[in-house]
Specification:
By secondary structure, the chain is an alpha+beta fold. The strands form 5 sheets. A 6-stranded antiparallel β-sheet has the order 13-14-12-16-18-17. A 4-stranded antiparallel β-sheet has the order 7-6-9-10, with no helix packed on it. A 3-stranded mixed β-sheet has the order 1-2-5, with no helix packed on it. The longest helix has 18 residues. The chain starts with 6 loop residues before the first strand and ends in a 7-residue tail after the last helix. The N terminus is likely disordered.
């Protein structure tokens, strides 16, 4: 049965309980303390739904809806792949389990029966004190010195490899250009004008000359602060002695207030140079990123957090070359691209903890859960998974795409085809749009236009070392997991067995396992730095 078919029983429209994700229909899983409540608290701190956060107990229950089945249903809670609680019942029973763990900790709730399953990756909401708000605001200040522009990283080792080409996209809110006071009519002209001033002051700076090759555009997808999130950020900055608004000049205060309001602002995207001037860690990429970030900080910028719907306002996206022969880096075969995607799915629950908490279940970088999709685009963050949506059973659905990859790789037609034909068979655009699409943590669609994959999860930040550490991690991830030895065990068996193994591997993945696989390619200190920057409490990952 499809998710839209119905059985008419005793005059009532009923639906068979089938499928592996909520969009196949009822039953579905509902959490009494959804993680999205943390996002609601950011934008509406007096919302009545937030009363759920006062409860010491969180539980997941089964909502039966209109489903019909005589099967026995098993509800279980797993932590790191180990089952710790189980309950059994039938349709209509009050089937529920209490969740373990403290703020930020994650477990997997599984409802299974002979003809289907539902899963929920439940994260306990964070306490307000655990939400990191550092590095979100830079007040315009005096002209930086050469030493400030070229200072090395303080908290991570300065990366000098690998050589693979990549690019970054930095999303911020900035004060609108004022032609009367600056003489510039566009933000791009203003940025380049400031760089020209600095080059006049420091003509020997190679980084400044390379900064001239960055792109400055507006981005309508970036959303500004709300009154509530702006007030929270100002209170946090004041409490942590980052700055005293009274010490600012009137002009600085005006620009600060503009960035934190929805007036006289611009939502911008700064993009690294395009090929053949793309970034490479073997060619001073770390220094270039540090220098450009310090320019942004000097001019003033803000990284807004949560929008009115509970999803993140701005992000830091990293594109890594995998199939552009004109850009640095080895050319990945179609099978290697599949292996890279499988490796990312395996470590999804680990890598998303590198982001700030408001991206952990964000819809613009939807987590690739090996058990299937758990939300829909139209939902607000605090009501994710509230009801099935007909026609979305394949959207952001790993099992659907994994089955396609394995059956295609094992087909005679694929093995007899050339590279171009294999790419079309595995990654045709219509298939990618229908399954993972663009809005997931690892976006495959840019392969067709740029020859890159896009890592979409990192939240916007004004911390230049986070940008360096994250970009280096993404490039290194491609370098390591282009080797299919890491994922062949999932792809060489039947898709059903491979998927079960991948689901288990995702649930049991750890930071230690990731670092072991990437030994020699990424510095453990940079990964620990990302985790520490993400949240005051990262949970047991």
């Amino acid at each position: 049965f499809s998710c839209t078919e119905r059985l008419v029983i005793a005059g009532h429209s009923m639906a068979p309980a089938v499928g592996h994700n909520l969009h196949f229909g009822y039953p579905i899983l509902r959490c009494s303390k959804p993680f999205g409540a943390s996002m609601l608290r950011e934008i509406q701190p007096d919302h009545p739904m937030l009363q759920c956060l006062q409860s010491e107990i969180a539980e997941v229950s089964v909502v039966w809806g209109d489903c019909e089945s005589d099967d026995s249903f098993q509800l279980a809670v797993r932590v790191n792949g180990e089952e710790i609680r189980r309950s059994t019942g039938g349709v209509g029973d009050d089937l529920r389990l209490v969740l373990p763990g403290g703020p930020g900790e994650e477990c997997v709730v599984a409802l299974t029966w002979p003809s289907g399953s539902r899963h929920l990756h439940a994260i306990s909401p964070l306490d307000d004190a655990d939400v990191r708000r550092s590095d979100l605001l830079a007040v315009a200040r005096k002209m930086p010195t050469r030493a400030e522009l070229s200072a090395p990283c303080k908290h991570i080792r300065h990366p000098s490899g690998p050589c693979r080409g990549f690019g970054v996209e930095l999303e911020f809110v900035v004060s609108a250009t004022d032609p009367e006071s600056t003489g510039y009519f566009t933000k791009a002209d203003e940025v380049m004008g400031v760089i020209d001033q600095l080059i006049t002051e420091y003509p020997e700076s190679e980084c400044l000359h390379r900064c001239k090759q960055w792109w400055v555009t507006t981005d309508p997808q970036v959303e500004p602060f709300s009154d509530a999130t702006a007030a929270r950020l100002l209170a946090w900055e004041s409490a942590n002695n980052n700055f005293d608004e009274g010490s600012l000049t009137q002009s600085e205060r005006d620009r600060l207030r503009c960035m934190l309001s929805q007036k006289a602002i611009m939502c911008v995207e700064y993009k690294a140079p395009h090929p053949p001037k793309e970034l490479s860690f073997s060619d001073n990429a770390a220094a270039d990123i540090l220098c450009f970030f310090r320019l942004v900080q000097f001019m003033g910028a803000a990284a807004p957090t949560v929008a009115h719907n509970g999803y993140m306002c701005a992000a830091l996206h990293t594109h890594v070359n995998i199939r552009n022969p004109l850009v640095r880096g080895t050319f990945l075969s179609p099978r290697q691209v599949v292996g890279l995607w499988v490796a990312w799915v395996r470590f999804e629950l680990v890598t998303r903890r590198f982001y700030r908490s408001w991206a952990w279940r964000d819809r613009s970088c939807t987590a690739l859960f090996a058990t299937g999709t758990e939300c829909s685009w139209h939902e607000v963050a605090w009501k994710q998974g509230a009801c099935p949506v007909a026609g979305e059973a394949e959207k952001h659905d790993v099992p659907t795409l994994f089955k396609h990859f394995v059956t295609t790789l094992q087909s005679e037609a694929f093995q007899a085809s050339d590279d171009d034909a294999q790419m079309e068979m595995l990654f045709r655009k219509s298939l990618l749009h229908a399954t993972c699409g663009k809005q997931c943590s690892l976006n495959l669609l840019p392969m067709w236009m740029y020859g890159t994959v896009e890592f979409r999860g990192m939240t916007a930040t004004l911390n230049e070392e986070v940008a360096v550490a994250w970009s280096n991690f993404c490039v290194s991830f491609v370098e390591v997991f282009q080797d299919t030895v890491h994922t062949e065990r999932f792809l060489s068996q039947s898709w059903e067995c491979g998927l079960r193994d991948l689901q288990e591997a995702q649930e049991t993945a750890t930071v230690e396992a990731l670092l072991s696989a990437m030994k020699g390619a990424v510095e453990p200190e940079s990964v620990l730095f990302l985790l520490a920057h993400s949240c005051a409490h990262t949970g047991d990952i």
